[in-house]
Amino acid sequence: MNLKIKILFFIAIFNLSFINDSFNKKEFYDAFASSSLEEVNSMLSKLENKKTSSLFRAYKGALFMKQSSLLKTPLQKLDVFKKGMLILESEIDKYPKNVEYRFLRLSIQENAPKFLNYYKDIENDKEIITKNYKILDEEMKNIIRGYSKKSKILKTSKLQY
Questions:
Q1: For residue 77, what pLDDT is reported?
Q2: Contacts of 110 (CB under 8 A, 6+ apart)
Q3: What is the pTM of this model?
Q4: Is residue 7 part of a domain?
Q5: Which of 11, 29, 79, 140 could make an SS bond with 136 (beta carbons 3.0 to 4.6 A apart)?
């Protein structure tokens, strides 16, 4: 085999291994919507094994916040919620125009117990999501559209399908 063919072969194998290591966004959102602690923990483990990125940090923050709602003791719940909140808020501070991060936060705010006082950005997040909905990829549009059917906040918004 000549050198050129060996290089092309190596690149093809490398690309295939990269494709197999890709991340399934739908699987994340299924875990995020789940009421199963096992499913949330499993997705957190998968994210731990991924190369760190802003998106994966935002996902982990959101999952920690979701996980907190499934834990037993109030102190555990609060500690894990705060941990997740710090992670997600940090990513939103770095990328304030990221619509997906805003969607994650809005869905958490809408479902968080009121005593946590985690609802102050709902209207701002809703505005960013509705204004930028049309530029999202189809997968993200489907996720938001699905959530909006059961959301009090997004149900009344003018998402442009």
A1: 96
A2: 119, 122, 151, 152, 153
A3: 0.84
A4: no
A5: 140
Structure tokens at 64: 């920690």
pLDDT category at 155 given cuts 50, 70, 90 is confident
- φ and ψ at 112, to 5 degrees? -75, 145
Quote the pLDDT of residue 121.
Answer: 96
In a domain, 32, yes or no: yes
Total structural domains within the chain = 1
Q: What digits encode the pLDDT tens for the residues 11-31?
A: 444 443 333 357 799 999 999
pLDDT confidence band for 2 (50 / 70 / 90): low
Q: Which two tokens stand for residue 69?
A: 């709602």
Nearest to 132 by CA among 106, 97, 156, 104: 97
In-domain check, residue 1: no
Alpha-carbon distance of 116 to 70, in angstroms, equals 15
CA 73, 105, 66: angle at the middle one, nearest 5? Answer: 30
Show the domain range for 115: 22-153
Is the separation of the CB atoms in 68 and 84 below 8 Å? yes
